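TEACHING EXERCISE
Course module: macromolecular assemblies
Task: Read the component lines below, then compare them to the predicted structure of the full complex.
Student: A.B.
Group: 4
Components provided:
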Amino acid sequence: QQQVKQSPQSLIVQKGGISIINCAYENTAFDYFPWYQQFPGKGPALLIAIRPDVSEKKEGRFTISFNKSAKQFSLHIMDSQPGDSATYFCAASMEWGNNDMRFGAGTRLTVKP
Amino acid sequence: DADVTQTPRNRITKTGKRIMLECSQTKGHDRMYWYRQDPGLGLRLIYYSFDVKDINKGEISDGYSVSRQAQAKFSLSLESAIPNQTALYFCATSDFGGGRNEQFFGPGTRLTVL
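Instructor-supplied answer key:
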């Protein structure tokens, strides 16, 4: 069974809107939570990551919100742009990423102009 | 990322054939990984290697084997391919420690088993 559950499967947002993708995990030993972005025909690339000692991390228009008690974390994309259209994967691992990574199923984001 | 290359990029093979996918990296990273990507399932780890002498099974290693020929090379083999191994395969590398613990992915190999 998938240790990291991601929703929604697909998301359509208007340009300038906020895109929100949610993930939930089960293993409380996970201590590293990255988000990867994948464009068609390319491999995934790290977008932003968080560790459970903070509840939020922001890099530009991208923010991770982390709720340790609920075992949930989410990606918020502010002022979404057509260039953000891609597939987004959340993931989780132990030992700060120095161990095998478990990925969510992915969310295909489309930002309409 | 041109620093991680995969060959071939596309491969069509028949059930029962042996096939090898190759990965090379010029990033100087010790750690290398093989994933498969399937629609609706995301990426699943097949094998990972923390150095030339260290090979570990991932979430879905059955039906696959790997070889770490050198720090820069990590090969994935399907000894007897079957249709449900049809997928997009990615190699990735990472460096030990560091703030971002980032994995760098290659461009992928699309494998079709008929």
